[in-house]
What does this fold into?
Amino acid sequence: MIPPLLQLDSVAVHAGREDLVELGVHALPIDLSSTNPLPDIETGGLSYEAMAGGGTPHPEGGAVYARLWNPTVARFESALARMEHTEDSVAFSSGMAAMTAAILATTRESGRHHVLAVRPLYGGTDHLLASGLLGTEVRFCTAEGVAAALRPDTALIILETPANPTLDLVDIRAVVEAARGVPVLVDNTFATPILQNPADLGAAMVLHSATKYLGGHGDVIAGVIACDRERAAALRRVRAVTGALLHPLGAYLLHRGLATLPIRVRAQQANAQRIAAWLSTHPSVARVHYPGIAGDPHGLLGRQMKGTGAMISIDLRGGFEQARRLTSSVGLFTHAVSLGGVDSLIQHPAALTHRPVASEARPASSLVRLSIGLEDHEDLMADLDRALAAPRVSHPLRHHHR
Ligand SMILES: *Cc1c(COP(=O)(O)O)cnc(C)c1O
It folds into this structure.
């Protein structure tokens, strides 16, 4: 047992490893069994029933079948819950699978189907909600508009802060108060548990696309929701039925990555702060979207967030044409979607991550999003400076038609 009052950095290294000494191992074990030997029909059946209800295996009945439960995944879940200050967490095969389960668990089990969503949101989330695929009726609103948009049949409120891709900050506590007991789900992907713990501010569910900072190395697709035991059981019931589980190898990589999450986030943030300040004086940049740069009207820095993070968006004076040149001229940055890894990425939200978003809510075509990694900040600035000065290339086709 690890002592309960450790600081975050110690929790990141030790959480979810409580049974390792007893097992006689030092590194996290990976259990790849898809099925498990049953002791006898009765206890096997009891275990099956406990897990289908969203619980853990019966002590003598074993794990039965890996769609119901897996010890490698369970260790990661307990570590992440510790870091998010919640009783439990439930891991999924992707951030979108986690979002789907959260919507199904709150709407289907309550018989309510109205969902409020504070824009802006990640393009995939916006698309899932707008599509009505899950039988929900979704109303998009602003954070200030939540109280007025609430209905007796509202099952869930979804928000993201800092939001993808504009880095808008939402006051979590204010939305929770306006929600009058309706559960609020906060997508905490950008902030990570290192910079923000929404459960401490009243959020009922804290979602991560674990693909991003939690994984941190661009080699896992995963999602996770931190919440109380009761909601976790509801999410596991949905997961067991829909099968959107996290593979144990993915859980192993995520759990291994948690140990370095605090230092990665702080080092990437230190780089981003320097780069954001430099970009705000750059002649090609009309506006820098980075927490704190345009002021902090709700006073959320320090109160809600322990730091400003490592995601930056910029509006280019040269509009879409310059975005095209910038993204195709970078060398150290990789032109790719996703974010949060040790290497820096650049992408154009309106054309890519936010492509499915309705035109009235789609990001500006002059906006480019940067995920700052662990490279030397001067190398990153030099790369951006060079690519921002890239000359306009003439289009051979256009010449041809002239
Ligand atoms: C990427 C992302 C998601 C979706 O996660 P996947 O792991 O790609 O399914 C959800 N929310 C935010 C903020 C994201 O950046």
